[in-house]
């Protein structure tokens, strides 16, 4: 999930009681007007190879394009009103498969054990037949 707000033009002000600028508390006003409305989001091609990138929450007028070679999702906002908040959720159409499947003794050798046990049972039945019945 990605969320951002179009800044307003004017002197940079801070939230009362919290003067520290950070990712969770960005400045809401800039002295210069915003000149670009394109947001670039890095998405590794290892996650998206042979899959379709899905963007949910795009508004009317928004455009987006994923460039797998550059591993970047380019998102251009249609609504550039100062103070407008954007919120999108990016996912892949077919979720990635696990890197490997954890196996155990029975999934690896269960068939072999069952066949050996059946051979042992057959031999025991033959021995019992010849020694006790015949």
Give structural attributes.
134 residues; alpha+beta; three-stranded antiparallel beta sheet; 25% helix
How do you describe this structure in short?
With 134 residues, the chain is an alpha+beta fold. It is 25% helix and 26% strand.
Structure notes:
- There is one protein chain.
- The protein is an alpha+beta fold and 134 residues long.
- It has a domain at 2-8 and 21-92.
- Helix content is 25%, strand content 26%.
- The protein contains 2 helices and 8 strands; from the N terminus they run ββββαββββα.
- The strands form 3 sheets. The protein has a 3-stranded antiparallel β-sheet, with no helix packed on it. The protein has a 3-stranded antiparallel β-sheet with strand order 4-7-6, with no helix packed on it. Strands 2-3 form a two-stranded parallel ribbon.
- A hairpin with a 4-residue loop joins strand 6 and strand 7 (72-76).
- The termini are far apart.
- The model has no long low-confidence stretch (mean pLDDT 84).
